[in-house]
Design a protein that fits this description.
Blueprint: H1 2-24, H2 28-38, H3 43-54, H4 61-75, E1 79-85, H5 91-105, E2 109-115, E3 122-127, E4 130-135, H6 136-152
Parallel strand pairs: 1-2
Antiparallel strand pairs: 1-3, 3-4
Helix pairs in contact: 1-2
C-alpha cells in the first residue's frame, strides 16, 4: 500500500512540474497531447531523446527523423504505408489494404492507420513519398473547383 501511495505522490509531483513548466510558456494543452503520445515511445527512443537533451541537441530532432526514415527506406525492404480514413478500419478491410499495397509496391508493408473524420469518407494513402487522395473531401473540392470554373467563368447565362 505504501508503494502505491508513493507512486501517487510521484505522479502528482511529475504532473504538477509539467503543468507549471507548460503554463509558464502557454502550452499546457499542447503538452498534454504530447504527453499522451509519449507513453508509446520505446525505451530506446526515450533514452536517445534524453541524450540529445543532455547534449543540447534537441534542435536536431527533425534532421534525425529525416535521416532515420532515409536509412529505413534504403536499407529496409518494408514500405511504410499510411492510410487515413474517416472511421477506423476493421480487420477485414485492413487485410485487404495491406494485401493490395504489398502487391502494388512489390514489398512487405508496415501499415500506419490514421482516423480523420474531417475527410468524410474514402481514403488517403501515402507511400514512398507519394500521396493518393481519394477522400470524399478531396472529391468535393474538385467538383466545386470544376463547377466554379465552368459556370462562373462562362459568358452564357
Amino acid at each position: 500500500m505504501s508503494a502505491k501511495r508513493g507512486d501517487e505522490e510521484k505522479v502528482e509531483a511529475y504532473s504538477r512540474a509539467l503543468i507549471d513548466a507548460a503554463r509558464s510558456e502557454g502550452r499546457a494543452n499542447a503538452d498534454l497531447v504530447q504527453w499522451q503520445h509519449a507513453r508509446k515511445f520505446s525505451p530506446e527512443v526515450l533514452e536517445t531523446l534524453s541524450a540529445m537533451r543532455d547534449a543540447d541537441d534537441l534542435d536536431l530532432i527533425e534532421r534525425v527523423a529525416k535521416q532515420y526514415k532515409e536509412i529505413l527506406d534504403t536499407e529496409d525492404t518494408t514500405v511504410s504505408v499510411t492510410i487515413t480514413t474517416a472511421v477506423p478500419l476493421d480487420e477485414v478491410l485492413r487485410q485487404k489494404v495491406r494485401t493490395k499495397a504489398e502487391k502494388d509496391l512489390n514489398a512487405p508493408v508496415y501499415l500506419v492507420e490514421r482516423v480523420e473524420p474531417e475527410i468524410l469518407g474514402g481514403v488517403i494513402l501515402e507511400a514512398r513519398g507519394k500521396r493518393y487522395d481519394a477522400s470524399v473531401k478531396a472529391q468535393l473540392a474538385n467538383i466545386r473547383k470544376t463547377l466554379a470554373s465552368t459556370f462562373i467563368g462562362s459568358d452564357e447565362q
